[in-house]
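Anyone? Bumping this.
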Amino acid sequence: MSRVVRVARAGLHHWEEPCLSGTRGSGTVFFSGCRLRCAFCQNQEISRQGRGWNLEIPRLAEVFRELEEQGAHNLNLVTPTHFAESIREALALARPSIPVVWNSSGYETVDLVARVAPWVDIFLPDFKYASPGLAARYSAREDYSETARAAIQAMREATGPALFDEEGLLARGTVVRHLVLPGNLPNTLAALDFLATLPAGTPVSIMAQYTPVGDLAAFPELNRTLTSEEYEQVLDYLDGLPDLDGWVQDLQSADARFIPTFDGSGLGDVGPCTSEGSVLGALSGG
Ligand code: SF4
């Protein structure tokens, strides 16, 4: 991507994991575009349709500074991978004193992880698919699983174990998210098996917020939220993996009330956007 970054929203977000949201909120910056094109993307208005506003690097640095001034517990870079170099330049202009969070899809090279690790305090990757077939079906990336496994291991190696401050806020570490998709229990159980192999001190976050968005005619199994029976099976399986630590979302999180609006808020006087629409999402992540 160019050195002009594209951003859809910046602001305090209160629906991340408790160790990130704290009491004042996580300082999220939602970047437009994404290296994946997941069929079920909750943020497809910005990830696939490109809704957003162009910012020069100095203005991005100001946005970072403003979030810290508003009291953000951390600077949460959402779907940042394709703008890594521009973000590095912005951080060189305005390095916040709060932790920097790399909130990504997990579909990243080990080389990319090594390049961003010096200025990232917290990696917050997804591990979406353990199954290459499912990754091919929903994201056209059959190599997602092996790529993300290597990236996550590199992230964990770079940060070391999770470190929390005296208020219980995450100061450093790697937290891995997994979104449970309806009708795909074997993929989730296999993903949990992988997460259980990570070193101690790698918390996981199991997400139940999936909500159908957009045209899913080709994927009818995704055209509903999770059932309580499905989610119970996931939680029962988790009970059998005592080495896994972290958070599980309530099933009630699959609710449009938690959705941020991608309206350019927090970016300053940015003028009209070049694409329009609305979006569903809850936790910030890619
Ligand atoms: S779900 Fe995440 S990784 Fe997939 S297209 Fe959306 S933002 Fe990108």
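Late reply, but here is one note on the structure posted above: The longest strand covers residues 5-13.
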